[in-house]
Amino acid sequence: MDYQVNYINPEIKLSCYEGKLFKTEAAFNDHLLVWLISGETKIIQADESFVFGAGSTFLIPRNQLATIINYPKDGLPHKAVAMHLSAKRLREFYNDDHIKSKITTEKIISFEKHPLLESCLASLIPYFEMQNNFPENIAILKINEAINILTTIDENIDSVLNNFEEPGKIDLVSFMEKNFMFNMPLEKFGYLTGRSLTTFKRDFYKAFNSTPQRWLTKKRLELAHYELTEKNKKPADVYYEIGFENLSHFSFAFKKQFGYAPTKLFGHN
């Protein structure tokens, strides 16, 4: 298999991918702490992109829309340890402590190389070889160890990890104009804008005079057209960054909207 995931427990996993690339679009319910052992990870957000190489450690904050693309590199597979820092674990860690100043971040947090953090995550690797179930109490200890280290090496991390607020109702138009390229279920778009699915669809039609599905497809194809004509990108390098799952579906939808295949545009500038 090109892609394998081995779980110590539901919150800690080791992934290994040997194919050309592996893409996922996410707005995780938990903070995700990632240690990249080999390969390369590109994370695309609405306003910024990040590229991480082997040895990088970074945190993807919860509820942040992102396209994540994992590549093998230098003859090595994409291999990473990922730890979910769930609200349950973080509430237990912080107990009733309160952070006075909340920092809301929409950015990926990258950590400088630090022996404490690297040794904590590296120590997990032997546990993936265990044939029996990993003891829950030890998994909790490892997660708490990682949180303790993060709070030691980053003075701002408490105000991120100790923030349990749910998304409030925000302006739908500005949010969708900024995040339309992320291929999320409508329920997730609704949640991130502080709405039920029914309210989201109602407010969306009022704002755009269109259904979400039609509007999203149109916006993504318009962005693809711009990328192909103005930036001279290849269709194969565009479709997965604008919310399409495969090249054939993208090509079909593009031709339906514009009357010609996307390959007609590449190389004409």
Architecture overview:
This is Transcriptional regulator, AraC family. By secondary structure, the protein is an alpha+beta fold. 37% of the residues lie in helices and 21% in strands. The chain contains ten helices and ten strands. β1 (3-9) and β2 form a beta hairpin. It has helices at residues 87-94, 115-122, 136-153, 158-161, 172-179, 186-192, 197-208, 212-230, 235-238, 247-258; strands at residues 3-9, 12-17, 22-26, 31-38, 40-44, 49-52, 57-60, 66-71, 78-85, 109-111.
Question: What's the short story on this structure?
Answer:
This protein has 269 residues and is α+β, with helices and mostly antiparallel strands. The protein is built from 10 helices and 10 strands. The radius of gyration is 20 Å and the shape is globular.
Layout of strands and helices, then pairs:
Blueprint: E1 3-9, E2 12-17, E3 22-26, E4 31-38, E5 40-44, E6 49-52, E7 57-60, E8 66-71, E9 78-85, H1 87-94, E10 109-111, H2 115-122, H3 136-153, H4 158-161, H5 172-179, H6 186-192, H7 197-208, H8 212-230, H9 235-238, H10 247-258
Antiparallel strand pairs: 1-2, 2-9, 3-8, 4-7, 4-9, 5-6, 5-8, 7-10
How many domains?
A: 2
Overall SS class: alpha+beta
Task: Summarize the helix and strand pattern as letters.
Answer: EEEEEEEEEHEHHHHHHHHH
CATH architecture of the largest domain: Sandwich
Rounded Rg: 20 Å
Pfam families: ExsA_N (PF22200), HTH_18 (PF12833)
Keywords: DNA-binding, Transcription, Transcription regulation
GO molecular function: DNA-binding transcription factor activity; sequence-specific DNA binding
Protein name: Transcriptional regulator, AraC family
